[in-house]
Write a structure and sequence with these properties.
Shape: elongated
Oligomer: single chain
Structural class: alpha+beta
Number of domains: 1
Length: 148
Amino acid sequence: MEAYLNASRVLIKDFGTFAHKLSARVREASYRLAENLGRPVEYLRSNQRSKEQIAKEIAQRDKVQSGLIAILSALEPCQSYSVRAQRSTKEIHLVLETRKCLFFYHYFYHPIFGFMHARVQSWFPFTIDFCLNGREWLAKQMDRAGIG
């Protein structure tokens, strides 16, 4: 009997091809978003500089006060699935393990939450983290209320 991934009826042996196609769609969607909004996409070859600082410098340089600032990408460790064979049973399984994949950091200014970003993993299971600064949000609320 063939082993399937439950949600989409993909054979486990075909998982790599399936995941590569989805990864390409995530990458293309990020690039298309930046292109449509006229914002830069930058691949970071090193983690020597803060992504947040780079995004703030781009926002200041381009005078961005709302919306997408930039998309930064970086190769980083992640938890993801690989197909592994088990010799004793002659079966294949998906195994969650630490690997590296490309992450996309969508930095933007939100009208309520202020400076924030979404961190999108480009490989299955495509985790997304939304990161915002509570102090930034509070400062925006105080500005709206006229509190100095």
